[in-house]
Structures are given as C-alpha cells and as structure tokens.
C-alpha cells in the first residue's frame, strides 16, 4: 500500500468514468486492454513501467485524446447520472465531494438493508393480523323467551279482531328497521300485522313490494309463534276505515303505545301507522328485545332470487381467499344530505353546495356547522383517499381483494382512483356478475342494495366509510353470526392525524392502530351506553356465553 501511495504522489494518474453503453460495446479483450497495462518482455519492476510510460510522448498524446473524448461525451450524456459513483474509485484523487456522495449512498443502502428486518405491510405476520377475527368471547345467539311471553303468544296468535297496517319508507336498511319495530308494536298491541307496505322511495324511484325483496313465506313461518302475519285485511275488516296516526313521537315506550293506541284498535279493529323510523324506544323489556333480534336476524331473509345471486357473488369473491367489503358512502345525495364536501375538485364542491342551496330540505346534518367543523367532528363520510390511508395503516395488504358496496360515487372512477391505485383488486357487483345475471334487477335500487348487503355480510372483514342504516344492520348481523371482524372508523379522533403531513408513516400507523384496537367487532354490551339499538349490539339480550369464564 505504501508503494501505491508513492506512485500516486510521484505522478498523479487520471481516472475516467465511462458510460455503461460504451463499456458494453467493447469486447472483453478491448476492455482488458483499457484496464490493464500491456505486458512488456523486459524484467523491469512495476514502478519502471510507470516511469517509462510517463516519459513517452505517445502516452501523453493518448491521454490528451481521451481527455478530449470524455469532455465531448459529457456534453451529450450526464455521466454522473448514468454512473452515480464509480465501482473503482481512484484511491489517490478522491475529492471530498465524491467522498460525501459515496458516504450518503452507503448510508442509504445501510438504511434500506436495516429496513429489510422490519415487518413490512405485506409481511406474512401483518397480513395474518389484518384478517384475524376478533375474540367473540364465546357469545352465541340466545333467544330464549320467558314462560309468560310464550303463554301470551298462544292467545295472541289466535286473535282475529285487531290488525295493524304500517307504511315504511327510506332505503332498504331503513325499511328493515321499521319492519322490525312494526312487528314489535303489533306484539305490544296484541294485533295481527298486515304485510308492511313499502313506500316508493323519492330518491331511488323503486316501486318494489315486500314480497319482491323479502321471503314472505319465511317471514310468516319464523314469526308464527310471536305475531300473526297476514297478507291483507280479512273481508270482515276490509271496509273498515283505519285510524291513522301520523305523529308518533320519538323513542316511545310500550306503555305509551298501549295508552295511545290500544283503545282505538280495540274499538275500530284497524290501526294505520306511518313513519316508524326511531319511534320505538331502544330500551325495551328483554322479551321484546329478543323479538327485535328474531325479526332482524332470522325472519327478514331476502327473496330467493336475490339471495341466490348475492351468495353467488360472495362465492366468487371467496374463491381466491379472504376478502374485505367496503360500504362507500360517496354518492351525490350523501354529500348533499350530510353537509359535507367530496374534496375531488373545486367544481365538484361547488356542485354540491349549489344543490344544497337549491334544495335545503335535503340537508339532514346540523345546519349551524361549517363543513370543516362537521369534518373534524367525525360527521362526514370518508373519501377514497382517507379510506385508503386508514386501510394501509391498519395493515391491509396491497394484494387484498376488496368488494365495494354502494351507489355510483360522485366523480365516477376518478373518485375511487386513490383506492384502486393502492389496492388493484377492487370489485363491485357489476364486475362480478354476468350482464344477464343483473338484468332482472335493473333499475331496482332495493334489489341492488340487497345484493350489496349479502356480499358485505359474508365478507371476512367489513368497513363502512360512514355510519348509516346499512352499516349498523351489518354490524349487528355480523355480531349475531359470531362477531366477525367489523372495522368502525374512529373518524373524530383520527382525522387530526390525517391532517398532520409531517408525521412519519410508522408513527401514523401506530397511532391509527391504537385508536382502532377496540373497534374491530369485539363484543360490546348494548347497555354500556344509553340509546343503543339491540339489532346493532345484540349482547346481552340476544346473545349469551359462559358467564363464569367470560366477561366484557
């Protein structure tokens, strides 16, 4: 090494970096002649060769020629870009700048190598953790009615004097909720329930009847020992003008129902109720809560044609492993009703604001809050960017198969592009079904929503982008089916971190996971918070376990 250093000090040599295109064009012998000095027949030492070479005018002319060639090459090519750093650095003439560049690149390589030891998003452990189901703590469906309830049922189902008519409105999940409460109200009044009338939806324009969407024979059979279900009024009552009640207050008790309606229905024989959404209290006696669960999870089964196609699409999603279902609330009417903005562009935001000014009656959110206040309060649907960041933070693998449920998002494919770029395996019913399979359900929004419900309920993991009737119904259904994984986005607490662009990704992911570690579908007591719906939280009234070995 000392000799080499002396050589460099005695006579500095020039080293050049040659583009890889030139190197590749040379033959092995030509390349060898450039890298290795030609052998001489004399017996001089290594130093002698350098000494005589440096004195030779031909060597100097050749060096000048190469120097000019390199200068011309640098005009046409950025050699530093093509060859970031020489694999054979000059041990004598390494400048400080080059040394720094090499050191920086070395540090980057070391950092990358260290990162290889960290569990990546798509590592087997991360993937397994994402698909892992919550601990159901041994809870199972438990609909054991009391002896008093069963004795009353024997008398009630034989009664032919009282009939309850109901008209339910809204989307399919909202209609389901009202049908559940209609059965319970009929039970409270000791009346038979005429098959509910589905009001034409003003937004969807769907004129489907109960038997088009639900299995009517199954509905009657399951509830045969609880409430008598009839398809129409009998001839003895068909000419009776029903007493119509339009102003039922919110969250009324069974006592209020009896005091308000029992005398009327006993006198007139028929009672007509409309707009049952959230009219019946969420806190009812145990037997009536069990009846709610029985209607929601057992009696309300979709019609055979819908169930067949829904199960078929679910099987297609399951054919290649587990899948995630997303309920994306990104339709135009959702943005209008919630008072939120889609964030796609100024044009789309202005479109929503204009529609809201034109039809203020559609706004169901608090009108005294600004968009930003609603957003930070967790009252707005997540857009595709936020859904994508949340899924990545929770460890969803890039290879995850995703079924997205919901109507056409405002902005079409553009609105979903942040999601599809990060997760390329994204499908909906139009992607999975053959054209002729969906044709019978064309322009039937309730049918399409029912198919979404079936595929979502059967998924391995489910996550809604916004609260709503469908999300709540699926949450309860998945809990009743054994507490299958259900991610509830903690929007109010997580969004401030979404706005912090300086936070390292690893720290962001850690915080998001921590915020959601108890929001993955684990059993939750309905009674732990006031006003919870038993069809969303079926524990403890509708599910039971070994109380000695499990507790919440």
From TrEMBL:
It is a single-pass type II membrane protein. GO terms for biological process: fucose metabolic process. InterPro entries: FucosylTrfase_pln, GDP-Fuc_O-FucTrfase. Keywords: Carbohydrate metabolism, Fucose metabolism, Glycoprotein, Glycosyltransferase, Membrane, Signal-anchor, Transferase, Transmembrane, Transmembrane helix. The lineage of its organism: Eukaryota, Viridiplantae, Streptophyta, Embryophyta, Tracheophyta. It comes from Gossypium stocksii. The keyword Lipid biosynthesis does not apply. This is O-fucosyltransferase family protein. It is found in: Membrane. One of its GO terms (cellular component) is cytoplasm. Its main location: membrane. The keyword Glycosyltransferase applies. GO terms for molecular function: glycosyltransferase activity. The chain crosses the membrane at residues 59-77. Pathway: Glycan metabolism. CDD domains: O-FucT_plant. Belongs to the glycosyltransferase GT106 family.
């Amino acid at each position: 090494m000392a000799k080499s250093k002396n050589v460099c000090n005695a006579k500095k040599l020039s080293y050049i970096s040659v583009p890889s295109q030139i190197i590749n064009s040379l033959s092995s012998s030509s390349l060898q002649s450039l890298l290795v000095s030609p052998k001489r027949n004399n017996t001089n030492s290594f130093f002698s060769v350098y000494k005589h070479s440096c004195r030779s005018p031909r060597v100097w002319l050749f060096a000048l020629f190469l120097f000019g060639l390199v200068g011309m090459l640098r005009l046409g090519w950025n050699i530093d870009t093509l060859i970031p750093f020489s694999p054979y650095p000059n041990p004598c003439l390494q400048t400080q700048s080059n040394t720094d560049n090499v050191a920086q690149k070395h540090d980057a390589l070391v950092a990358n190598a260290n990162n290889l030891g960290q569990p990546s998003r798509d590592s087997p452990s991360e993937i397994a953790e994402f698909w892992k189901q919550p601990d159901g703590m041994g809870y199972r469906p438990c609909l054991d009615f009391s002896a008093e309830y069963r004795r009353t049922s024997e008398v009630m189902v034989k009664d032919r004097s009282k009939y309850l008519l109901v008209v339910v409105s809204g989307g399919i999940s909202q209609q389901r909720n009202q049908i559940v409460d209609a059965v319970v109200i009929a039970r409270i009044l000791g009346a038979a329930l005429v098959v509910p009338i589905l009001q034409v939806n003003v937004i969807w324009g769907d004129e489907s009847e109960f038997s088009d969407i639900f299995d009517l024979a199954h509905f009657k059979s399951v509830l045969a020992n609880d409430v008598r279900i009839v398809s129409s009024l009998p001839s003895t009552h068909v000419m009776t003008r029903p007493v119509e009640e339009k102003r039922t207050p919110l969250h009324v008790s069974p006592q209020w129902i009896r005091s308000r309606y029992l005398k009327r229905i006993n006198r007139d024989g028929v009672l007509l109720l409309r707009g049952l959404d959230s009219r019946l209290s969420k806190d009812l006696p145990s037997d009536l809560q069990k009846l709610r669960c029985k209607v929601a999870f057992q009696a309300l089964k979709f019609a055979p044609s819908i169930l067949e196609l829904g199960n078929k699409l679910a099987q297609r999603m399951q054919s290649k492993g587990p899948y995630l279902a997303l309920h994306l609330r990104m339709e135009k009417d959702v943005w209008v009703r919630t008072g939120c903005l889609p964030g796609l562009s100024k044009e789309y935001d202005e479109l929503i604001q204009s529609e809201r000014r034109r039809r203020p009656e559609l706004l169901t959110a608090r009108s005294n809050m600004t968009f930003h206040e609603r957003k930070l309060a967790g009252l707005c649907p997540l857009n595709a960017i936020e859904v994508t960041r949340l899924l990545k933070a929770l460890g969803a693998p890039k290879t995850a198969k995703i079924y997205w449920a919901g109507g056409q998002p405002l902005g079409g494919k553009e609105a979903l592009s942040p999601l599809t770029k990060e997760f390329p395996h994204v499908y909906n019913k139009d992607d999975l079904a053959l054209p002729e399979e969906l044709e019978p359900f064309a322009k039937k929004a309730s049918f399409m929503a029912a198919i979404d419900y079936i595929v979502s309920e059967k998924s391995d993991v489910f996550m809604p982008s916004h609260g709503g009737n469908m999300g709540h119904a699926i949450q309860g259904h998945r809990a009743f089916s054994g507490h299958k994984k259900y991610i509830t986005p903690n929007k109010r607490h997580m969004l401030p971190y979404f706005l912090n662009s300086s936070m390292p990704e690893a720290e962001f992911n850690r915080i998001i996971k921590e915020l959601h570690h108890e929001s993955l579908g684990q059993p939750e007591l309905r009674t732990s918070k006031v006003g919870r719906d038993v069809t969303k939280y079926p524990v403890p009234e509708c599910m039971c376990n070994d109380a000695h070995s499990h507790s919440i």
